[in-house]
């Protein structure tokens, strides 16, 4: 695996090769990334009903010809503490890229999520994908909300966990003023 980013906290972001089968090269990192996903989803949704083992998730990742995805992990303290997923359409001319970034709770607010988003945005720019869609699980809680300009979805404002998402949104949609005022 090649090192892609290093921060002052000695965090490393690596590309994870998708293993062909459990136990194949890259399996340990793939499985650790699945655990990060499950932990984040469990915290966000308040249930383990949506968890998938690495074995259950692998077939989706093996469909690269029709559903291209790349997996990255962030390491700190000798372990995988975050994951980033970069998804596109199979058509290289398509302008869309989807990002998923999940960081274990003890490692949040250290720039790890931001480093992953920066890396995913860099990939999208390199591939001329100008529409970036970010997925972030968030518990339903009281507070001011920012609605999507499309009318589908919204997220809670002034939430430290997703402050990096505000920056990503402000670069890519027409509601910049609303994002800036909501997320300060």
UniProtKB/TrEMBL annotation:
Keywords associated with the record: Transferase
Record's keyword annotation contains Magnesium: no
Source organism per UniProt: Cryobacterium psychrophilum
Keyword hit for Nucleotide-binding: no
Single Gene Ontology MF annotation: acyltransferase activity, transferring groups other than amino-acyl groups
InterPro entries, A to Z: Acyl_CoA_acyltransferase, GNAT_dom
CDD domains per record: NAT_SF
Domain N-acetyltransferase: 16-176
Stated name of the protein: GNAT family N-acetyltransferase
